[in-house]
């Protein structure tokens, strides 16, 4: 559901999330959003060493683009600042182990859940309670993992203070200046961990949006975008509040979806699932239902090839967005009254 | 940790077997048999039952296969055809997902001839010839062993290296992944019997596909080849010296490989697995990973009579010594073996021994034999475990 081209400057900029662009349809999306002829900032850090190979992307966007080159900037930082590079490597090693251990726990919980579901129920209501408990355990594991990952990041930034190092300050300034002259931001897919690492290192969140807080300043109500953002794949995941890794067809072990880390948090109650048909067994509605329960009240947003979902000004899903329903079947989002 | 082998439920077949329906037709004429055979895949697979067929005016027909603990000579029964050569048949039961290589043995008078099944188009090749292949119910050739249209291919380039250790010129092939860059750094995989892996296990195609689908990390692969295989592979000190002190340094000098044990893997099948194990054993902490397929890990618990012939003598000496004092040869070991091959017993026996050294061991069995297609079909599991790709992190 493409957004109507906005003529009201007060309407606020929007995030548009797309399905994979193997067969690019970005040009028509840009046209639909009224952005044709605009100057686009592109963030292709998720492509890692192929960050600069963006010819197709540039052509789709009409030629006026500035690639922020975050991955390449990050490599330069590591080169001139071995202390920070070593600290980052150690941080990644810790996070890797943390992820591995969390996954072992999750697999056990998922296995327990499978056994509960398979158990012939003598009293279905009792079984349902046990299943709910198991899902709740997984939700708590997810929340704790995200919080611990957050702690590791916080400690890294507090200890090594990249934000105070001259080369980072200069790079952030350069990125901010490059972004300032653009009309919209385009963030494709790639490696979601690398992309988020680069976005955080160069502090892109405040450059993309400003937080709107409640009157008491305690609660984040929404993010007010400085310019429209179009994203897909890892780019779409990075914009959301929580990044969920998922892949059912892994050669290594049966897939259990796992939280990676918090995203930039520019959306509200959205968990992005790019290429769900290729990566998830959508026919297994029992498992998909558990996945929906794990991330609730957020909604798992299905971003398949033809998907185009423009969020509202609060970063929430519009009515009609393709999501996984509580029963595990693909459905469309229905907005509650007053939402 | 060993992987529980996910044996699927046996397939079901309702109704009479096709061969029994045919046998019910009397008198059986040539046209009926021809119609029966036309367009029918042979052996006929109906649930767990597989019917072998042969057509010809001969004295006896049998199927020869190498499934361990089963009669390996299975005679066919003769079905008379009134106006043509007889039809021979036998039905055996095979579990789902099995793959069995076999040949047909025909006797006319005193002359016995063995050849591939003329009614079966599935043929597997190996350095010692070809065999017919029976694919039981549920078996499917994995799509990633076949060339895929959108896969970016890597490159193979020859590598000649004069070996002082082996006193010969060595001939290897080096695989560079698609979009190889000298500015990147890659894990290194060294494959024994390299040319055979490329020719009979489609390993170049498999690498292309697994790297493209990011099941596997971009990896530089050296396909090394033996001179005198039966001398160099079963625990031969010069071979281990060549790999560790000639081949690896030469690769590190020429190509951007990661110079760490955890980014190195030795791989091989059968005697090639023994060569991998013994090379890692002789060079502690150099190779962090081993990928061993149907290893010829023959050993004896009592005495030295192993029944494998003289070629296995150095293997048994090495394995017995290793079992007496096991020590960690690699941090991670991926081991596969077919349940239909005689080596299943030593392979199963070695898993707890390797685990006792503190190594992380993944052990996978398959309903297959000592064959290149078995080893091919296990490549995805092994390679994506040894050098996993960033699949779960990459979202296009």
Care to describe what's here?
Chain A: InterPro entries: Class_I_gatase-like. The complex is a heterodimer of chains A (339) and B (396). Chain A has 339 residues and is α/β, with parallel strands linked by helices. Chain A is built from eleven helices and 15 strands. In chain A, strands 3-2-4-8-1-13 form a six-stranded mixed β-sheet. In chain A, helix 3 (70-80) packs antiparallel against helix 6 (166-180) and helix 5 packs across helix 11 (285-295). The longest helix of chain A has 37 residues, at 82-118. Chain B is of the alpha/beta class and 396 residues long. Chain B has helices at 18-23, 30-37, 194-200, 203-212, 229-232, 237-254, 271-282, 313-324, 344-356, 372-377, 379-386; strands spanning 44-46, 49-55, 60-65, 73-75, 77-79, 87-93, 99-108, 111-115, 123-126, 129-135, 155-163, 168-176, 188-191, 220-223, 264-269, 289-293, 332-338, 360-366, 394-395. Chain B folds into two domains: 18-135, Immunoglobulin-like (Sandwich); 143-393, Rossmann fold. Chain B starts with 17 loop residues before the first helix and ends with a strand. The longest helix of chain B has 18 residues, at 237-254. Chain B has an eight-stranded mixed β-sheet, sandwiched between helices. In chain B, strands 3, 4, 7, 8, 9 and 10 form a six-stranded antiparallel β-sheet that branches. Chains A and B meet through strand 5, helix 7 and helix 9 of A and helix 11 and strand 19 of B.
């Amino acid at each position: 559901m493409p957004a109507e081209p906005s003529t009201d400057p007060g309407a606020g900029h929007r995030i548009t999330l797309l399905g994979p662009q193997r067969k690019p349809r970005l040009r028509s999306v840009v046209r639909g959003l009224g952005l044709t002829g605009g100057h686009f900032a592109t963030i292709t850090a998720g492509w890692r060493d192929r960050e600069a190979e963006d010819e197709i992307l540039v052509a789709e966007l009409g030629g006026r683009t500035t690639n922020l080159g975050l991955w390449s900037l990050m490599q330069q930082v590591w080169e001139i600042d071995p202390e920070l590079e070593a600290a980052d490597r150690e941080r990644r090693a810790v996070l890797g182990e943390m992820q591995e251990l969390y996954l072992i726990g999750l697999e056990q919980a998922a296995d327990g859940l499978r056994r509960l579901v398979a158990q012939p129920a003598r009293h279905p209501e009792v079984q349902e309670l046990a299943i709910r408990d198991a899902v709740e355990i997984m939700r708590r594991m997810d929340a704790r993992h995200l919080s611990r990952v957050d702690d590791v990041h916080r400690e890294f930034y507090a200890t090594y203070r990249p934000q105070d190092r001259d080369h980072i300050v200069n790079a952030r300034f350069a990125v901010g200046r490059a972004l300032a002259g653009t009309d919209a931001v385009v963030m494709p897919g790639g490696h979601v961990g690398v992309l988020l690492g680069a976005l955080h290192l160069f502090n892109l969140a405040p450059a993309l949006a400003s937080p709107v807080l409640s009157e008491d300043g305690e609660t984040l109500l929404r993010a007010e975008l400085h310019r429209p953002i179009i994203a897909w794949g890892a780019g779409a995941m990075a914009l959301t509040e929580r990044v969920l890794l998922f892949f059912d067809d892994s050669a290594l072990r049966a897939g259990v979806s796992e939280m990676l880390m918090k995203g930039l948090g520019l959306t509200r109650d959205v968990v992005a699932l790019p290429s769900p048909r290729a990566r998830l067994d959508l026919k297994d509605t029992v498992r998909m239902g558990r996945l929906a329960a794990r991330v609730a009240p957020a909604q798992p947003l299905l971003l398949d090839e033809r998907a185009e979902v423009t969020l509202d000004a609060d970063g929430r899903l519009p009515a009609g967005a393709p999501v996984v329903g509580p029963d595990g079947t693909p459905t469309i989002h229905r907005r509650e009254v007053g939402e | 940790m060993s992987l529980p082998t996910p044996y699927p439920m046996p397939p079901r077949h309702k109704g009479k077997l096709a061969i029994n329906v045919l046998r019910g037709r009397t008198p059986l004429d040539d046209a009926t048999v021809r119609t029966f055979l036309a367009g029918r895949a042979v052996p006929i697979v109906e649930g767990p039952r597989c019917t072998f067929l042969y057509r010809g005016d001969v004295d006896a027909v049998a199927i020869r296969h190498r499934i361990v603990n089963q009669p390996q000579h299975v005679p066919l029964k003769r079905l008379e055809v009134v106006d043509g050569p007889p039809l021979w048949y036998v039905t055996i039961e095979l579990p789902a997902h099995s793959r069995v290589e076999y040949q047909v043995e025909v006797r006319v008078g005193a002359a016995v001839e063995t050849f591939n099944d003329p009614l079966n188009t599935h043929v597997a090749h190996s350095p010692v010839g070809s065999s017919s292949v029976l694919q039981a119910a549920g078996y499917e050739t994995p799509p990633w062993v076949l060339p895929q249209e959108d896969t970016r291919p890597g490159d193979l380039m020859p590598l000649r290296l004069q070996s002082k250790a082996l006193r010969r010129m060595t001939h290897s092939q080096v695989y560079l992944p698609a979009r190889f860059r000298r500015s990147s750094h890659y894990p290194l995989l060294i494959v024994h019997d390299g040319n055979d892996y490329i020719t009979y296990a489609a390993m170049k195609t498999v690498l292309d596909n697994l790297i493209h689908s990011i099941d596997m990390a971009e990896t530089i692969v050296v396909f090394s080849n033996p001179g005198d295989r039966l001398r160099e592979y079963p625990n031969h000190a010069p071979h281990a010296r060549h790999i560790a002190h000639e081949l690896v340094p030469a690769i590190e000098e020429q190509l951007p490989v990661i110079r760490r044990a955890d980014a190195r893997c030795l791989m091989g099948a059968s005697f090639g697995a023994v060569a991998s194990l013994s090379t890692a054993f002789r060079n502690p902490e150099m190779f962090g990973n081993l990928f061993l397929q149907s290893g010829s890990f023959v050993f004896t618990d009592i005495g030295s009579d192993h029944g494998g012939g003289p070629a296995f003598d150095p293997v048994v000496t090495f394995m017995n010594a290793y079992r007496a004092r096991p020590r960690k040869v690699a941090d991670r070991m991926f081991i596969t073996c077919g349940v239909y091959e005689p080596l299943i017993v030593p392979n199963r026996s070695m898993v707890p021994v390797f685990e006792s050294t503190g190594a992380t061991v993944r052990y996978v069995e398959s309903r297959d034999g000592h064959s290149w297609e078995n080893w091919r079909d296990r490549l995805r599991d092994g390679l994506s475990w040894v050098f996993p790709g960033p699949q779960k992190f990459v979202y296009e």
